[in-house]
Design brief:
495 residues; alpha+beta; 20 strands; 38% helix; 19% strand
């Protein structure tokens, strides 16, 4: 009998991936394509629902055509996708406009207005978090102001993964983690919050909620013909990709910390209960508990930008030598000492969640500095920013384990820097496709392969590489200098 397989689809901001796993969490095959998108104006990032679906279908077809994958062995499918942003359907189930990604900043001015008139503070107390420039609430306010006909047509608000699942199953729904972006009808008067934001018409636009590890439908005949997945295979509701990465990295117990070094950076702490509204970060439902996370809008994206703009020769060298790009980058920065010989980098190339006007850049450059100094400074600036966020979310004494994931975790040097900045042992999971694995494990629980999420993680997630801090003392003055420079430069950040 062919061993059962679980398929996870991860529709991220940079790539759309599909991966097949066995029940022990081993990666059988992976397929990936660039995430579709358009940028109609500066700081605006969108994608068409149809383009997203076509890309997902293509990625899944490519996965199932690989020799290692038997489509008839697929027991369940789970879906993850980037969170926040705005994806909507009208009363006929059609999108009234292109989806808006979470890297979009069009609503920053609205958020500034809410901050000035006290709306943000009032809403934070009720929501437990503070809207920012790319969340559904602020984007709905932007659509109401700029596209009133579109606003009037919105019947349901989805999230990125929900668009994919809707095309797979025909079911319109979302999961508890994404739903917790909206006012909780169990403890918050939704009409009051929407009224405070001037969004009274949106009080009931959230799609029905189905838990992440439950089946919300099956592959339709139409989706089967499009993707190659067998019709009738159950599809789990899945998770926002932050939660999927945490699950796929094995973080299910309170005290677990996860740092994602992806296009965005995310620092995540798993909790038993929601964080108080007075604490930093975004608190969300997660499996049987909660997690709190804090984002950095450009993490590995900073490396991509720098290499593409300044180091095309490195890209050519990696190709010619048949090396993973991060393996080559590690060679380049290996001889640069901690602190990058005085160079600092602020990783705010897309602003920050807390301040859309934040700006990135190098500080402390001299004529004798090289591209290698600058790349290591990027590694350090991202690590300091994300480690500071993790410390705020979970006090170091309460952290029981720290997992490092995302494309940046392919760099041994970068992982070592994270361990040194945190002054704690960190480890990478035993799979690079942790978001897809988290989605697949949702499916595994939904179809009865695992008793619950904790049993799934214990059985299917292992440790890849461990990194022990060795130069933590050298990084303390670097962190202090980084903080001083950031504070001094903040007044210069203007729109």
């Amino acid at each position: 009998m062919t061993e059962r397989l679980l398929v996870g689809i991860d529709a991220g901001l940079t790539n759309v991936k599909a991966a097949a796993f066995d029940l022990e969490g081993r990666e059988i095959a992976v397929s990936s394509l660039a995430t579709p998108g358009v940028s109609p104006a500066p700081d605006r990032e969108e994608q068409r629902h149809d383009d997203l679906w076509e890309t997902v279908a293509d990625v899944v077809r490519r996965l199932l055509r690989q020799d290692a994958v038997d489509p008839t062995a697929v027991a369940g499918v789970g879906v993850a996708g980037h969170g926040h942003g705005l994806y909507a359907l009208d009363a006929d189930g059609e999108p009234p406009r292109r989806g808006i990604k979470s890297t979009d900043s069009r609503a920053a001015e609205i958020v500034d207005d809410w901050k000035s008139d006290g709306t943000l503070e009032a809403v934070r107390e009720r929501l437990g978090w503070e809207p920012f420039g790319a969340d559904p609430l602020s984007l709905l306010a932007w659509v109401k102001r700029e596209e009133p006909e579109t606003y009037a047509a919105i019947d349901r608000v989805l999230f990125c993964k929900d668009v994919v699942r809707h095309r797979l199953t025909g079911r319109v729904c979302t999961d508890e983690m994404e739903a917790s972006v909206f006012p909780d009808s169990g403890g918050t008067d939704a009409s009051d919050v929407f009224g405070e934001l001037g969004l009274e018409a949106c009080a009931d636009v959230l799609a029905p909620v189905v838990p992440s590890t439950e089946s919300c439908g099956t592959i339709t005949a139409e989706a089967a013909a499009k993707t190659g997945l067998p019709a009738g295979v159950p599809v789990a509701t899945g998770l926002h990709d932050v939660g999927a990465c945490a699950f796929g990295a094995g973080a299910t117990r309170p005290g677990s910390g996860v740092v994602i070094v992806g296009t965005w950076g995310q620092s995540i702490g798993v909790r038993q209960s929601p964080a108080p509204a007075t604490e930093p970060g975004l608190s969300r439902r997660y499996l049987d508990g909660w997690l709190t996370y804090r984002g950095n809008r450009s993490a590995a994206a900073c490396v991509d930008w720098f290499v593409e703009e300044c180091c095309s020769d490195w890209q050519r060298e990696a190709t010619e030598r048949g090396l993973d790009e991060y393996a080559l980058y590690d060679e380049k920065v290996a001889d640069v000492s901690p602190g990058s010989d005085g160079v600092l980098f602020l990783p705010y190339l897309r602003g920050s969640v807390a301040n859309p006007n934040a700006r990135g850049g190098f500080y402390g450059l001299r004529m004798d500095h090289t591209k290698a100094h600058m790349l290591r400074a990027i590694y350090e600036g991202v690590a300091i920013t994300q480690c500071d966020a993790l410390r705020e979310l979970v006090p170091p004494r309460d952290l029981v384990e720290i997992r490092l994931t995302g494309g940046g975790a392919r760099s041994d040097v970068w992982c070592e820097i994270f361990a040194d900045v945190l002054d704690a042992r960190v480890s990478t999971p035993d799979s690079t496709e942790v978001g897809a694995r988290g989605a697949a494990l949702c499916a595994g629980v939904a179809v009865g392969c695992y008793e619950d999420a904790t049993e799934a993680a214990d059985r299917a997630v292992g440790v890849g590489t461990e990194y022990v801090p060795s130069r933590a003392a050298q990084y303390r003055p670097v962190r202090d200098r980084f903080d001083r420079v950031r504070t001094a430069l903040e007044p210069t950040w203007v729109a």
